[in-house]
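Retro notes
What went well: the complex prediction finally ran end to end.
Inputs used:
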Amino acid sequence: MEHKHSEKKMNVRLKIWRQEGPKTPGKFEEFSLSDILTDMSFLEMLDVLNEKLIHEGKRPVEYESDCREGICGTCSLMISGQAHGPNRGATTCQLYMRSFDNNELITIEPWRAKSFPVIRDLVTDRSSFDRIISAGGYVSVKTGPHADANAILVAKDLSDRAMDAAACIGCGACVAACPNASASLFTSAKITQFALLPQGHPERSRRAIRMVDQMDKEGFGSCSNLQECEAACPKKISIQNITIMKQEYLKAAIAADFRAGMGSADGGA
Amino acid sequence: MVPFKRLFSSSLGRKYLMGASGLALVLFILVHLLGNLTFYSHNGDATNAYSAKLHSLGLLLVVAEWGLFAVIILHIYMAFQVTYRSKVARPIGYDSLKSKGGPTKSNVTTRNMIYTGIVLLVFLIIHLKQFRFGPDLEDGYTATVNGVMVDDVYRVGVETFQNVGWVAFYVFSMFFLGFHFRHGFWSMFQSLGALNPRWSKPIHAMGLIIAILMAVGFLGIPIYLHVTQGGVQ
Amino acid sequence: MSDETIKTTTGGLNSGVPGGPLAQKWDNYKANMKLVNPANKRKYSVIVVGTGLAGGAAAASLAELGYNVKAFCVQDSARRAHSIAAQGGINAAKSYPNDGDSVWRLFYDTIKGGDYRAREGNVYRLAQNSTAIIDQCVAQGIPFAREYSGELANRSFGGAQVSRTFYARGQTGQQLLLGAYSALMKEVDKGKVELYTYHEMLDVVMVDGKCRGIITRDLKTGKIERHAADVVILGTGGYGRIYFLSTNAMNSNTTAIWRAHKKGALFGNPCYVQIHPTCIPVSGSHQAKLTLMSESLRNDGRVWVPKKKEDCTKDPKSIAEADRDYFLERKYPSFGNLVPRDVASRNAKEMCDEGRGVGETGRAVYLDFKDVIKRDGKAAVEERYGNLFDMYHEITNENPYEVPMRIYPAVHYTMGGLWVDYSLMTTLPGLFCSGEANFSDHGANRLGASALMQGLSDGYFVLPYTVTNYLGTHSQELLKKVETSHPEFEKAEKEVRAGIDGLLERGKAGKRTPTEIYRDLGLVMWEYVGMARTEAGLKTAIQKIKELQNDFDTNLKLTGDDQFNKNLESAGRLGDFLELGALMAQDALARTESCGGHFRVESQTPEGEAKRDDEHFAYVAAWEYKGKNNSAVLHKEQLIFENVKPSVRSYK
């Protein structure tokens, strides 16, 4: 954790992306604020700006946040070129003004990707992630009685690794930070969670193929193994998940071909 | 249904092919370097003997060359595909994009594999023109190895590297080979899904070592020939 | 048996709890309910508003049964519902640790924890369903914590003496929500669920006495839409954000249930609010949100304040052991730091009122991990609470491995909500309400790790039965479809449109932003309708809320248009919060006893504990809306205890 600023108050200069709607072109607009408390969160600083704008009769800067404790994955700002700002393992809402210098110029942009179109200002539409999950990010059990929970034993280390992958909050920082706008980390985290757990095994081939195909269909870029997604991920999700996704997909793609030959219907194959 | 269609049509498939073709190229370049170490001997006999041995393979050599050509074409095609799709995936770029450090492997060279690759492609064309399709027996470049008349590849090398310009071009290109290799070596394992956390770091480190050995091994040849054979006419 | 016949009268309102012994009530219900055959299920449509545990689980389960489901949420994705923020765990009477747990004991702990203000039948069903929830979640691939044996791990939680809490690190809510979300997305893929994200429900539509649809606003485009169905379920969460500062998410609101209330649904126990003891204290007036530190921290952390006032400003590490007052351990030797939330919160407040609070504002107590670090080592503590410690460090700039945490209570959960009967149906036929949005299972105080249990019980294991029973009972009428061109839809849409336009119109002229009025409302609620309530204070609150309502009606400042506009959303929700605030104060004023989270200063024991008045107040207060300028009317559902005897709740 970095704490650059020790005084209580600071001035900030902001360069913020403004865009009326999905189809209108956007541009940067500059603002400055004085007497911002260093203990304020970054989003509270934006709240101060918005209150000021409303009083001036101007349209406030639209951005999103919800839980403000780093778990819901709603907040999503590119802050001076870094997804969720300078601190590792933290979301935008967990960023405090003490991480910035007095009078520092802070550039705020939306996540930029074709698959995350801008709705307004800093708000983007991330429904492409929902569609990737919808393609197979689940175990297809129905609600109802199941075997006793302890009838399924899972080795602690596998369960822990599955949890590491399941910690993904779906914020999209991986896509935003990737020079190629690839969604590999997001997609792989879900594939890996279920590849590691016995519950996920019956439909692992179908899942890998359908989720990767959906990811491609949404228009995300390719993974170039730069690991910048892991660096930007607020939950520090490892690219090891991408390795596992590649194994799962390769196995599934080959298996699908063989099964197709045997007349077996493999979803998506 | 096209067999293994997904290998060509999906983003992951393209990366498997990038990785696999990269692996083939790495193996080729390693063998090529081992052969080229003969240039470091005091005269051309070892080099020409090695060259003659290769030519004696006949049909096998033809197959290997065409195979290599196909692998290179595949590697290039996939590279352009991957790059193109990534550009399309972000139509509006950032005002600034800064790495967050930590585990990242993002830097100027890793982000620009396509450009280091293009330099290598240009190099490859020139290099093939100079050596593979350069002067041979018919042009009078002959040498005798064990009493048999063969191509004098060694002389081609010596003559080429009398020119400081060519020496500089080769040295420059080999730096790019090093950069390309540095990321490519580890990356090909990752693309093929062949890494686990325990191997990841050692392989990344190995990539650096091999990249340096390879670049230095190759770029030493023009310099060595220029320095030791520069005066011989 | 129709849903009319399974109701038994319990006072003024019909709770519909089936007859028979406690343990067989739910089985009796299921054995006698009406069914809908598979071919007919395809003819019914169900609207589910909210995609958290209670809404998402219901939407997925009903779609699996074959109903056509439309699911709505205000967030950009169904996965963002605030259930995601629950940290500590979910209770279930699995009794895996072999420590004496049972369905009965979970039932008993919950009834007692709720200070005998919940319905026996509902709570017993909740305890029964708890075990099936764990089986369901494990089958979905939720990575619960496990032992080396490969079996599930358990931990203890406040208000219980057994270890029955299942958890997934400090992210249990997230994992359970993602389970429900995945199930929902699976049905979206199959075409059985139509998902509407960025949609806010602004009214319910009643046709011929039955709820047949809703009016929504598309938050991206501003478009007002009509949606018709045969059943509407509200799983829209609690209203804790009425306090402005709370641990609830920024988008959490009361609008859906409040609009339904205004259409005629009774509102149960609005004054029951849970104040969570372990939150990071308020640091300044700029703050938008408070952060909860999981209650599980009280398993190992010890709560204390200095014995002497003059020590309060000193470095806590310099205060000798003898000069520390571990007040929870001192006052409640058998439960110690694990007393229920309301007790822990009230005691922290008391210490601060005595002048022994710590930190810059003097409104905080210490939560100290020194002893556990010494006993189990830093690594063990890091494994258990690492993410919570990091979060604390990030926010406060203090390292809790070195310095004790400072904590203070904050609003966290609302036990009150729309009144529902045993089938989770509100007083509006066809309108159901599940999870935190209803008033049902927690009485006057909720035990830790019970919210997730209730949300999932309602969504996975109650609504699929009770909704089916409703549809089966009223099939004749419901198979006649209502079109969205019906005059009732027309009328409702017009009103909603007028409301939005009105906000934007008067927003041009006023002076005060929604946030400014909202902050003031929060302060009034916290001061007068917070942890300690008095008659005079509650009357003051009603007066002050009236003034704020006037401000809102005549002096609101808004900019922007009706397309994506967070402040417009906030203004609309604030309007509903203002009306609800007045009702909360009215309810708190009427309930002159203390119970659970509702502490009336006038009603306490000599030791300062909450004093219940079972003779006069063993009822659910269900309020009927009578128009903006009229006082709400109180209906009572008498609570009948046949199986447990209400006693003085003691954790000593």
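What we learned: The longest helix of chain C spans residues 566-590.
What to try next: split runs per interface for comparison.
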